[in-house]
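User: Hey, quick favor. My workstation is busy. Could you predict this chain's structure for me?
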Amino acid sequence: MTVRSVLSAIALAFTAYLAARGLLWTRPETVVHGWLLIAALSAYLPVAWLWILWGRTRGGSVATGRAAVPVWATALALAAAALVPNAAFLAVDEAGRAQPFVTWVIGAIGALMTIVMVRGRPIVAWIGLGLLTVSTAAWLGPLEALGLGLVGSIVWVGAAQLAVRALERAARDAERLVELQQAASAWQAAQSGRQRERRIHVQRALQVAGPVLGRTIETGGNLRAAEREAARLAEQSLRDELRGPRLLDDAVRAGIDAARRRGVAVTLFDEGGLEGLDDAALRTVRAELARVLSDAVSEKLIIRTSPHAEIAVTVV
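Assistant: No problem, here it is.
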């Protein structure tokens, strides 16, 4: 059983209790038009239970209930606030207007407007309470109306509005917290990805430059021509890793290295444009680049990524 089901059951029981008081005619001699009392009760309960039960099968809470209750139900609530109290007071003579089987309408309409407030219609709730106030003050007098339950109805509606605002603020805070948690998780995932990428770059740099640096230290910088060429190629490979990592895979690295060993001057620049590509598209781009490198016969190659919507890489 959900919290909403429990609250709905309590509201149904409470409104039924208030309406049942209208059947206990403690002073039947004061009743002039008994059918009006029955009509008031018969009009009140369906409207109150409509506001309690409408949208239960659709699920949701106060926010969804606000959208679920139709406009005609709002009109019914206001009609009940205007007609039910006047019908009850009109049904008895002046001596019976302060009797519980008549004044039940004060608490009943107050409960209905509290339900209306909880369902997200504050303006309607206060208008309905204003109609109740005018009717009871006209029939009983302002002070007697306040003493017979009008104060309680006003307090109920006001407390309901404060509670609804507090719940809505809590819901907004919870939603904001979820957004912050998602952003923090995304940032942490991005940082983890960058850390893995940096580790990969470091490992690759050690693989490429480690032997050359070791040989340089060992010989005190007196490298043979072949070793100097290897150092030059290693330096260029490291520069490629910094300038265009998204363009590189094993095939592209091998193609660039082979081109340089043939004497081709290869320059690599990643200027953006590949960020929106998925892995499959990147594999296609890299495969095409590796093919171009294998067929290149120019003395100089400039490879640039392109922000153009239809061109991923430009090779000059």
